[in-house]
Amino acid sequence: xxxxxxxxxxxxxxxxxxxxxxxxVKPWERDLHAREDMQPDKLDLAIDEHIYFSKEAxxxxxxxxGGGCGCN
Amino acid sequence: MQLKKKSVLxxxxxxxxxxxxxxxxxxxxxxxxxTVPATAPAKGPxxxxxxxxYYGESDGRVKDKSLRMAIQRAFDEDRALxxxxxxxxxxxxxxxxxxxxxxxxxxxxxxxxxxxxxxxxQLPLDDTFKDTRFAIAADWLQPIGEYSRVxxxxxxxxxxxxxxxxxxxxxxxxxxxxxxxxxxGAAYGQETIDxxxxxxxxxxxxxxxxxxxxxxxxxxxxxxDGLVGISQILSRRSALTLTYSYSQQSGYLNDPYKILTxxxxxxxxxxxxxxxGLGLYLYDSRPDSRARHGLFGEWRHAFDRDSMAVSFRxxxxxxxxxxxxxxxxxxxxxxxxSYLEPQIRFYHQGAADFYHSYLVSGQPLPQxxxxxxxxxxxxxxxxxxxxxxxxxxGDFSVRLEYYKQTTQSADPKIGVLANYxxxxxxxxxxxxxGYKINF
Lengths: 72, 439
Description:
The complex is a heterodimer of chains A (72) and B (439). Chain A has helices at residues 2-19, 31-34, 42-55. Chain A is mainly alpha-helical and 72 residues long. The radius of gyration of chain A is 17 Å and the shape is flat. In chain B, the strands form four sheets. Chain B has a 16-stranded antiparallel barrel. A three-stranded mixed β-sheet of chain B has the order 15-14-20, with no helix packed on it. In chain B, strands 4-5 form a two-stranded antiparallel sheet. Chain B is built from one helix and 23 strands. Chain B has a single domain (8-438), classed as Beta Barrel (Porin).
């Protein structure tokens, strides 16, 4: 079943991440992550999501599935 | 530990921007590397991001002129209010789902107040498509203790024939020295559809002018969304986000403006309908529920000067649609004040179980059928580039995108249908001007 398969993948990767020792990054080593170009552009993403929601059968995934539009 | 008063906006930006990455303490948000460009200095509590968008499809199909605003007001203690506003002006022609033929075809407009024609060989398009959409959403971000946040919001939108009201909430928890953030969210939407001329009875035939016997009144649907995910800082340069999402729609899920042609099993031409001069065209019929699962992953990586983001998405729903999406962006920081960002996206979907390009006369009617091209097997590619420049009066940007969609029909082309593309390809150009200011 799709749900179980996806949950399994997510859970497996999540466990791997949390236990893999990649927690070694200290707060003072995160300057690159704080750079503006490392943050998602929310407005661009919202615009793209609205277009694809209107033209394709799948939507959302990154965040909520979209809606509030009669275009699909 | 949080800063108290030094930089209110810095705190807010840190909280909002880094929520995806496992929020780091505000004291470390300011980029330490002097060679790194384009990190906005904190100035004031307000951030206004504006975009003017033009979306235009080829062959005189849909055009959208849109204005978008994202306004954020930051408050003390990492709290922030966000308000998003969108105004869309839509015009043009939309494919009805009917197939081309070698004979002229006449269709009744959705209002039942007139007709429109498709010439031989021409894809039937309803050229009365015109709408204005206004949407607003508000979100409040609030820390809960030192290591978690909540974001609650509400949304509303209105069109001529469609209204939406929604609410959403999202919780985030940091742990593992803030290298890991778990998040969980839920949203609910209530939508009312009041189609021009009424909502058609599924699989009822299109009637002539002034005859609304195949139409009912308005209808509604509701949408429940849930998501759970994890953001993990992998190294000093990389971060990964994984999200599982679930969406459940129920209620009226048909497209009231889409029809299917019923063709002759030998000639492939439309058979005669119940109204004089009209072929037999049946209204769209879809299940009244849809459940969708999605898995989304995004990897972000910072180079010394540039950065990139790669994402994938797998989706599957109980209408039989399976899709996969891959997307990549590379941010090329040209200098301290400007950048170029090429981007590419690939999308593939399989057809819905009940997708048909047409129905065949004499065969039993299926329970569900739709000729909406958006439910067909499809490939799509988007290529684009964005240029941004920081000035003393704000950040300006321009984005150009080209979207190309190719769809395939699974049905055999019988009779005259062999001469035509039953689901024609579509391309669109997207031009976006942006302006962002902080004060």
